[in-house]
Amino acid sequence: MNLEKLRPDKYLKYLYLPNLFATKRTKEILSVNPTIVPHREEAKQIVVSVYDYNAESLEEKKFAAIDDCFTYKTSGRTTWINIDGLRKTDVEAVCTHFDIHALVIEDILSVNQRPKLDEADNSIFCLLNMLYFNEETFAVEQEQISIILSADVVISFQEDAHRDVFTTLRDKLKTANSKIRQRTADYLCYSLLDLIVDHYFVVMEKLGDRIEEVEDEVTRGNNSRSLAHITHLRKELIVLKRNFSPVREVVNGFLRSESILLEDRHTKYYKDVYDHIIQASDLSENYRDIMVSLQDLHVNNMNMKMNEVMKVMAIVTCLLAPATVIGGIFGMNFDSNVNFFHQRWGFYTAVSLMLLIPFGMLLGFRKRGWF
Fold this sequence. Notes:
The protein is an alpha+beta fold. It has helices at 3-6, 8-12, 17-21, 24-30, 88-97, 102-108, 167-173, 179-182, 185-220, 224-256, 267-330, 346-368, and strands spanning 47-53, 58-63, 78-84, 116-119, 123-134, 139-150, 153-158.
């Protein structure tokens, strides 16, 4: 027998109980330790998208080298520089050229960073996560995005170059005389935050559909997999909670800020985003309450099933008791003068009693409503 094909190490690890019950998803959600320097893999390539615009015109460019966007620092128009893919040298070069504090570089390159807002004299930096719902694994996925607002320039850093939630914003930028083309950089920053927060509702809607499916599963056909599905969804709700509460603080930071980069006429727009994140947070709490109720319902259903099984077993035991007693009496190993021992109809009488007495007990149980 080839022992290498058996791979005993693959199975022996499950003898350790924590390995038996631990899941990869749990570790992904809860593995956040600020004392450990995280390791981020460098992007193989980056894509730099530049939108330089005013009310009359729009210049859209894409570059593969980070240096090509440096000329837009003083273009005299509003500029959005979006960088897909993170590399330390590129992030340092951009932040140095645009006079961004060194601590911001560490936050941009961080992994599993808590959403936050930092304000400096010449810039406002915020970090949060874009959320997506994976239809195959029913998991909420995160992508960290960093946004820097400075005079007439908004710089955004994304991890994944293949997806984001800014398609609507790009379409508006391409539309002449649109509101965003007539506004300043802080309105562009608001638009980015608004699209990120609005997409939270899309994720929650899909998660809500999944919750309804699990609810029907628990209500109609409660089985051993139901608890696993409930536990999985509760973990995904933890992801929502860990994002919504800090993002609320981020948006509130814009509302309380007295920076000259933020115009008073745009405060109401940030207030609208704040209202949306409050609503999203409340909705996630409602989902959490539903999952707690579903878990209680699952446990109660399992207990009811167990009670039904125990009741049936108790009834069967009671019904068999008379037959056991009668069989024991007539099966004693000594001679006796008990009636029917040596009678012709003794056997048939004993069998009849074994059947009639349980039948009478069954009728009595039924009349009392015991089943």
